[in-house]
Design brief:
CATH superfamily of the largest domain: Crotonobetainyl-coa:carnitine coa-transferase, domain 1
Number of helices: 18
CATH class of the largest domain: Alpha Beta
Largest sheet: 6 strands, parallel
CATH architecture of the largest domain: 3-Layer(aba) Sandwich
Helix content: 25-40%
Order of helices and strands: EHEHEHEHHEHHHEHHEEHHHHHEHHEEH
Structural class: alpha/beta
Strand order of the largest sheet: 3-2-1-4-5-6
Number of strands: 11
CATH topology of the largest domain: Rossmann fold
Distance between the termini: 31 Å
Length: 401
């Protein structure tokens, strides 16, 4: 894909992205998708996420074949398109100075290393702030940063599975949740917090440090469960709760899969009973109210399943015809073929380097009338923009031996 003009409402922002893996790059990717200029700073051997499969046909290791068409797999491509890549060795004095030159002209610095790593490198928030008092320094940490609140686990590493377990999500579902929600949600919160801090900095001239703890994010993700425990003093039992507050609010079998049905209001129940041709269930004492349905959930489920198992997902959706919240359980092939996805332009074409086929990546779900966003740059090869960025920001990058 030839690079096209960067679009979006954040074109005036320069973001220095020192993040790795998924949580940080996801948040940095939100900035890139909304039009900010995002320069990804990678170590000489690159973000390790580059080497996670699946790969395109014309691919080789980041470390070996520099002329390969692409040096990244699908997970890296998903969260690093629309970014530039520059290689800097932050353990080297020359690399540190180059990094500080970038930060001096930036609005935001993002990282997701363990607490204290950047400090030990001599590249702490305090050091960068001396060069750029308006800088926003935002990070994702497993258990937060001591600057915003001490944690007994502050120096522990964390990945998605650990954060989901600590934060109660594994208990709530009796399993890990995929995709990696304990990466994606903290990364999103980091981006939102950094943007709020930019707003404050532009009003006051004062930059600041902020962090998002993966543990904290998972706790906040379950605000309803927090409130329920506070109200009752009783933790919910393990496993996905099909009938805690509303019913039906569940998955039901069709002849070719499953469909979700969500009855949130009394009129939803009346509409569902009408579609099922079961007007008797509107008045039946076992199902007339939400409280009754929760009390007699097995019987209500049996009645609904007797109806849904007669039809395909498409037939059920046609019968419901948008009368109440419902959705077919779709796999990715279903989603790629869905008319909604096509109408909303939620899959954007991208042409990777080399002898590779065109691919499609998820578009930004935030749609603007006046400042539309776009996919303007393919995921970058490692160090693809070294020369251009070094010339623009006034430093040189030593060539690897």
């Amino acid at each position: 894909m030839n690079e096209v003009k960067r679009q979006g409402p954040l074109q005036d922002l320069l973001v220095i992205d020192c993040t790795r893996a998924l949580a940080g790059p996801y948040g940095a990717g939100l900035f890139a998708d909304l039009g900010a200029r995002v320069i990804k700073v990678e170590p000489p051997f690159g973000d390790g996420y580059r080497n996670i499969p699946p790969f395109l046909p014309d691919h080789a290791s980041t470390y070996e074949e520099a002329d390969a068409g692409s040096d990244y797999g699908a997970p890296f491509a998903a969260v690093n398109r629309n970014k530039e890549s520059v290689c800097l060795d932050l353990k080297d004095e020359h690399g540190k100075e180059a990094f500080l030159n970038l930060c001096a002209q930036a609005d935001i610095v993002l990282e997701n290393m363990r607490a204290g790593v950047m400090d030990k490198l001599g590249l702490s928030y305090e050091t960068i702030r001396r060069r750029n008092p308006r800088i926003i320094y935002a990070c994702v940490r497993g258990f937060g940063d001591p600057r915003t609140g001490e944690s007994p686990y502050a120096h522990w590493p964390s990945l998605d599975a650990a954060a989901q377990s600590f934060g109660g999500l594994v208990h709530a579902n009796n399993n890990l949740v995929t995709p990696a929600i304990a990466d994606v949600f903290p990364g999103t919160l980091m981006a939102f917090g950094a943007l709020a801090a930019v707003h404050h900095a532009r009003a006051t001239g004062e930059g600041q440090f902020l962090d998002v703890s993966m543990y904290d994010a998972m706790l906040a993700f379950q605000k309803s469960a927090v409130a329920q425990f506070s109200f009752t003093g009783k933790p919910n039992p393990a496993g996905l709760q099909r009938a805690m507050t509303l019913y039906p609010f569940d998955l039901f079998p069709a002849t070719d899969g499953r469909i979700s049905l969500a009855v949130a209001q009394p009129h939803h129940w009346e509409l569902l009973c009408a579609v099922m041709d079961r007007p008797d269930m509107i008045l039946d004492e076992r199902s007339a109210s939400n409280a009754a349905r929760l009390q007699n959930v097995d019987w209500v489920e049996e009645q609904i399943c007797a109806w849904t198992t007669q039809f395909t997902r498409a037939e059920l959706m046609a019968k419901l015809d948008g009368r109440l919240p419902a959705g077919p359980v779709q796999n990715m092939a279903d989603i790629f073929a869905d008319e909604h996805v096509r109408a909303r332009h939620m899959l954007e074409p991208c042409q990777p380097e080399g002898d590779n086929p065109s691919i499609q990546l998820a578009a930004s779900p935030i749609k603007f009338m006046q400042t539309p966003t776009n996919l303007y740059r393919t995921p970058p090869k490692l160090g693809a923009h070294n020369d251009a960025i070094a010339a623009e920001f006034g430093f040189s990058i030593p060539q690897p031996e």
